[in-house]
């Protein structure tokens, strides 16, 4: 069993900017020495999330709209009293979706469905460059 840890950077627009990172994750798995195993994709930060979806513009709009209904960004959250940065809703959205995802791979190929992509979502109120950690674990 071997472990390789890598970092990538992703830039996403504010307020639910969604970026398809499937290609980058796939390239890093292919470059690794590990043939079969899992890759954990972890967003460093508390206002972003990692998930899977069919990455297309209308679904991206649907996700943004449903999150606006569930966790509106312009509510007066208690968190705003702590730092005054008015991103309490951003933190709640990140908490709901979560910072990581683990995907198995076989023969260096991610085992994703045809319409399933790995995405990073920025919930913060400003555009962000975010560090994403990939931990690749498996057999050589």
UniProtKB/TrEMBL annotation:
Q: Which InterPro entries match?
A: UPF0047_YjbQ-like, YjbQ-like_sf
What Pfam families does this protein's entry cite? YjbQ
Family, according to the entry, reads as follows: Belongs to the UPF0047 family.
Q: What is this protein called?
A: Secondary thiamine-phosphate synthase enzyme
């Amino acid at each position: 069993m071997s472990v390789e840890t890598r970092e990538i950077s992703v830039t996403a627009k504010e307020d639910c900017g969604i970026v398809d990172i499937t290609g980058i994750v796939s390239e890093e798995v292919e470059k690794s020495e590990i043939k079969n195993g899992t890759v954990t994709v972890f967003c460093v930060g508390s206002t972003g999330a990692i998930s899977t979806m069919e990455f297309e513009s209308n679904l991206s709009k649907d996700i943004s709209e449903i999150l606006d209904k569930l966790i509106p960004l312009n509510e007066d959250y208690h968190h705003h009293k702590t730092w005054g940065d008015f991103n309490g809703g951003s933190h709640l959205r990140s908490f709901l979706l979560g910072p990581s995802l683990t995907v198995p791979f076989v023969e260096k190929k991610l085992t994703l469905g045809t319409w399933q992509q790995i995405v990073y979502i920025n919930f913060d109120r400003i555009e962000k460059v975010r560090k994403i950690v990939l931990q690749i674990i498996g057999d050589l």
